[in-house]
Amino acid sequence: MSYPHPRYLSDRGEISADFRPAKPEPDTGSADATRITYIADEEATGGEYGLYKVDMAPKTMGAKEHFHRAISESFYVMSGEVTLYNGERWIKGGEGDFLYVPAGGLHGFQNDSDEPLSMLMIFSPGAPREEYFEKAAEYAQRSRAERKAFQVRHDTYFTDMLDTPGN
How far is residue 40's CA from residue 78's CA, in Å, rounded to a whole number? Predict the structure, then answer.
């Protein structure tokens, strides 16, 4: 494996780092059970990746089995225990564990434990996930067609929402 082709071609570096102090967290729709902190969104990274901190209360459902067509998703457990779906089975992950899911990979997550969970989620390339986080709970109450359109707009394909005979 080699490095990607250079994107910066000058012989000298430039002043381009972008420090962003912490800002108030938005309401992601389920602050009582799950809080998502936007560490580096698509705008902050020029679309290269998105980095989010997820804090979940004990016994909290995260995301059931789904996949993305355009983005990969990774999980890094900072504290607590998470139950992750790796496409074959649900597995337990703890502090320091990491799960990488390439585009098309089935995955899901939840906190089945009696303790809080804190983990990082990374999406690559960066995508505008903020609207998804902020409005997912609202769309869960809407019609199946509205919910599916919202999910497709946000590159999220839940296996129970796919068009299959009988659905």
Answer: 17
Q: For the chain, list the domains and their CATH numbers.
A: 34-158 (2.60.120.10)
For helices 144-153 and 130-140, the axis angle rounded to 10 degrees is 170
Judge contact between 127 and 50, C-beta under 8 A.
yes
Mind listing the pLDDT tens digit for each residue in 58-103? 999 999 999 999 999 999 999 999 999 999 999 999 999 999 999 9
Instruction: For residues 17 and 99, give the distance between their C-alpha atoms in angstroms, rounded to a whole number.
Output: 28
Q: How far apart are CA 62 and CA 108, in angstroms?
A: 7
Tokens of 121: 């989620």
Rounded to 5°, the CA angle 24-67-128 comes to 30
| Omega before residue 125 within 30° of 0, cis | yes
The β-bridge partners of 118 are: 55, 79
Alpha-carbon gap, residue 72 to 94, rounded angstroms:
21
